[in-house]
Q: What sequence folds into this?
């Protein structure tokens, strides 16, 4: 494990060294993403400009949702965003090279690239999260503080699992990355709002099938002491790591299944 | 026990073709159609056949990249598709048309990264790198980013990359493709060297007939997914139109000569071409017979070359796999 982590750092820094040759664009990219993603949060502020509350949540409370989900999602993008390029590896047959090396194939794809621009997204989400943590009206207990950490880490793992499972479609279709992005982006988007405002079927979708409600909604409900519209017991809020684990196992299985159906190219 | 074993291996692909606007036709393509062979440790075998014959597909199954549709494969006692990670440590793979080096980094950085990916012990790494620097003359461009290397230099880098972890077998898919004569020769020398020095088993696919003549003690010829020949080069030459040709310049034009053990395949003025098989008559006996039959001005003997032989096999698409000796 420690050895794999060391290798990960080695591979990623090799990537960064290649990109560092273009260092001006490196910094501009980070700044650009940082600024542009605030537009995203602006949309939420616009809604609150017209209504005082959304499903019983105030603007600071929704900012907490947005912050947790945003930090989790941007960390996921930073860590596994390279999966976006999987279809290229498959189309060109270069996934062959991943399979001739004595390391996990998913590990190698993830470590094959690094997008520093995503750092800008992490910074933006973290800014919103800090603002929310400071401004929400909450009596901070050890449990609530722990929940913030659990939510971010577990949430990132859930997003990553959804992403891995969804991207496997390109092993069959090669193209189709767009539809995968819409699954992950929609997942991220849906986790930014209190699920109280969704129709019942959508509430079930985000809690069971694509469990993004566990990223921010349940943890934030716990922190803010909100009742759950689905009537789930309060310990559900702490289930995020367990959900993440199950999602990761399912994603791992889907990945292995997909790799066995890899068809290579040419020859 | 053989180091590489294939038993009735098949690989089928489902291909969907567009027919009309919406309809799609589904066809099953048998890329590899029941191949069996064994390769002993320490040998150099050439896997040859026309484009689309199933060569690369076989190599990809041997490395665990592709999962066979049926049949059994064993490489160093492992099942490639199920024990891919263990196998990867023990074999080296080089695809002439794929690049495993890091494009933007100096060549030496790729070796360093591979060293960690394969967990090569420090002393092994240093010893191997030193040997390959010498064998492949890498010193001039170790610090050069891979994207600035010539194809020949890059291939030398790729060969090193495939061998750094002391593999027992090296699988090469068209290692000399696109190289100039000098660079090809260097690749061949390198493979000969690692085979004799380290006892590494070499299996290569190639279209290059010089590769075959120079390197391969054993040939496996594949066509339409089936093995059509398995044996050494000499036997192959003999069996398939391994006919030698005696070109005879006669004093004057005349009709086709009638000689035992040979037949005339071409007549051009006073010149005649007589084809004969090594096992039926010898060049000396044929020459004697010809000079006895007609006055001869000059003689020339053509040995069959591998190109003709392979072309003939392809053309015939020989039906039954033949056991080599």
A:
């Amino acid at each position: 494990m420690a050895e794999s982590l060391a290798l990960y750092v080695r591979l990623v820094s090799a990537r960064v060294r290649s990109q560092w040759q273009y260092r001006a664009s490196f910094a501009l990219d980070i700044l650009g993403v940082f600024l542009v993603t605030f537009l995203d949060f602006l949309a939420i502020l616009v809604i609150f400009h017209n209504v005082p509350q959304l499903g019983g949540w105030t603007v600071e409370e929704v900012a907490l949702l947005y912050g947790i989900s945003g930090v989790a999602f941007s960390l996921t993008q930073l860590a596994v965003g390279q999966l976006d390029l999987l279809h290229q590896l498959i189309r060109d047959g270069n996934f062959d090279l991943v399979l001739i090396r004595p390391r996990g194939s998913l590990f190698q794809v993830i470590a094959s690239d690094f997008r520093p621009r995503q750092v800008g997204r992490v910074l933006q989400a973290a800014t919103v999260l800090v603002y929310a943590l400071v401004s929400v009206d909450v009596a901070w207990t050890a449990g609530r503080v722990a929940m913030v950490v659990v939510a971010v880490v577990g949430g990132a793992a859930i997003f990553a699992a959804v992403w891995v499972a969804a991207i496997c479609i390109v092993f069959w279709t090669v193209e189709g990355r767009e539809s995968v992005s819409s699954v992950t982006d929609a997942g991220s988007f849906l986790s930014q709002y209190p699920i109280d405002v969704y129709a019942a079927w959508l509430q079930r979708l985000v809690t069971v099938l694509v469990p993004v409600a566990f990223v921010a909604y349940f943890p934030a409900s716990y922190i803010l002491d909100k009742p759950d519209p689905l009537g789930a017991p309060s310990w559900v809020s702490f289930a995020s790591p367990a959900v993440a684990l199950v999602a990761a196992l399912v994603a791992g299985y889907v990945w292995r299944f997909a790799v066995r159906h890899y068809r290579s190219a040419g020859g | 026990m053989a180091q590489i074993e294939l038993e009735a291996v098949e690989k089928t692909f489902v291909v969907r073709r567009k027919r009309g606007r919406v309809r799609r036709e589904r066809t099953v393509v048998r890329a590899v159609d029941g191949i069996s062979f064994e390769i002993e440790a320490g040998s150099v075998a050439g896997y040859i056949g026309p484009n689309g014959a199933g060569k690369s597909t076989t190599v990809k199954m041997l490395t665990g990249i592709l999962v066979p549709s049926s049949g059994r494969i064993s490489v160093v006692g492992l099942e490639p598709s199920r024990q891919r990670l263990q196998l990867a440590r023990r074999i080296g793979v080089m695809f002439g048309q794929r690049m495993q080096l890091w494009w933007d980094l100096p060549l030496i950085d790729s070796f360093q990264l591979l060293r960690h990916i394969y967990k090569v012990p420090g002393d092994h790494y240093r010893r191997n790198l030193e040997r390959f620097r010498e064998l492949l003359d890498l010193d001039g461009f170790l610090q050069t980013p891979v994207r600035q290397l010539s194809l020949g230099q890059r291939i030398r880098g790729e060969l090193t990359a495939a061998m750094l972890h002391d593999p027992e077998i090296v699988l090469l898919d068209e290692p000399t493709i696109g190289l100039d004569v000098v660079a090809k020769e260097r690749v061949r020398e390198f493979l000969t060297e690692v085979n004799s020095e380290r006892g590494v088993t070499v299996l290569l696919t190639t279209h290059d007939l010089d590769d075959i003549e120079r390197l391969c003690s054993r040939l496996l010829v594949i066509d339409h997914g089936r093995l059509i020949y398995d044996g050494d080069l000499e036997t192959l030459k003999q069996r398939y139109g391994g006919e030698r040709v005696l070109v005879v310049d006669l004093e004057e034009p005349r009709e086709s000569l009638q000689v035992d053990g040979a037949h005339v395949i071409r007549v051009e003025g006073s010149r005649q071409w007589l084809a004969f098989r090594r096992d039926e008559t010898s060049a000396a006996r044929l020459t004697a017979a010809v000079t006895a039959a007609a006055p001869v001005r000059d003689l020339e003997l053509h040995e069959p070359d591998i190109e003709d032989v392979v072309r003939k096999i392809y053309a015939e698409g020989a039906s039954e796999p033949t056991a080599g000796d």
Remarks:
- Chain B touches chain A at residues 13, 55-57, 60, 63-67, 81, 84-86, 88-89, 91, 93, 95, 97-100, 102-105, 109, 113, 116-119, 173 (CB under 8 Å).
